[in-house]
Amino acid sequence: MNEYLSPNTQKSIQRSIRVIFIRYMQNISWDTDRYNIRDFFRLWVIYVKAHSTWYRTMPTEIKTDHHFHEDLAQRINEGIQRILNEPPSEDQIASIQMMQEKLDTHYTYGCKAEANFVEKLLTEHLQKEQD
């Protein structure tokens, strides 16, 4: 992909992968049993077609090139792995632990993005208890 896409386009592709993967995982409550690569990819394509300038301006011959699709699949896999391998911050861990003790819950999380989801969920539970 590097040889025929500008650095800005490559960054936009990476950003779109990150945004939609995290959104998709939030929609399925980070339930890995519900994860389906086809569903994720379908959402990503819809997002890209509707919101990405790089896609609208990309020549058709690149969009239909099998090398582009191979590179894109690799880029998607790498992007997902980066997200899943990014550890939660110490602040996130402490915040989640404190809220779980208050709520007597036992949510697990494996990466920073999932910790963000859990932290938001726990915050909402605490707010409901206070109302």
Compose a concise summary of this entry.
The chain is mostly helical and 131 residues long. The chain is 75% helix and 0% strand. The chain has 7 helices and no strands.
Structural features:
elongated, 131 residues, 7 helices, mainly alpha
Order of helices and strands: HHHHHHH
Overall 3D form: elongated
Low-confidence stretches: none
Structural class by helix and strand composition: mainly alpha
For the CA atoms, what is the radius of gyration?
A: 18 Å
State mean pLDDT (0 to 100 scale).
Answer: 94
Biggest sheet character: none
Q: Helix share of residues?
A: over 70%
In angstroms, what separates the terminal alpha carbons?
52 Å
Number of strands: 0
Residue fraction in strands: under 5%
Number of helices: 7
